[in-house]
């Protein structure tokens, strides 16, 4: 079984698998049971993906992967900045 087949079987591929996962009560990453997204967890995941992409880019010299790593890092920072700004605004 190749990697693509494995990904499809876990529900990240075709629409029927995705539909079954949603109807079975599966909760997407970064979403709590209350269905409100956990933006801090999403930002942490972006940062983790950024670090992995940066390592791979350094190992392979892939400029596109390096740009992806930078973009993921920028997105993670923006999410965390927005969360901090909102927390500051609410506490004032």
Describe this structure in words.
With 92 residues, this protein is mostly helical. It has 2 domains: 30 residues, no CATH class; 55 residues. Helices cover 76% and strands 0% of the residues. Helix 3 packs antiparallel against helix 4. The longest helix has 29 residues. The N and C termini lie far apart (56 Å).
Mean of all residue-level pLDDT scores: 77
Structural class: mainly alpha
Whole-number total of structural domains: 2
Number of helices: 4
**What does the largest sheet look like?**
none
What percent of the residues sit in helical stretches (DSSP H or I)?
over 70%
> Could you tell me the strand content as a percent range?
under 5%
Cα-to-Cα separation, first versus last residue: 56 Å
Task: Give the number of DSSP strands.
Answer: 0
- Rg calculated over all Cα atoms: 17 Å
> Overall 3D geometry?
flat
Q: Element order, helices and strands?
A: HHHH
Q: Could you name the ranges where pLDDT drops below 50 across 5 or more consecutive residues?
A: 1-22
Short account of what is shown:
The protein is an all-alpha fold and 92 residues long. It has helices spanning 3-12, 15-23, 39-60, 63-91.
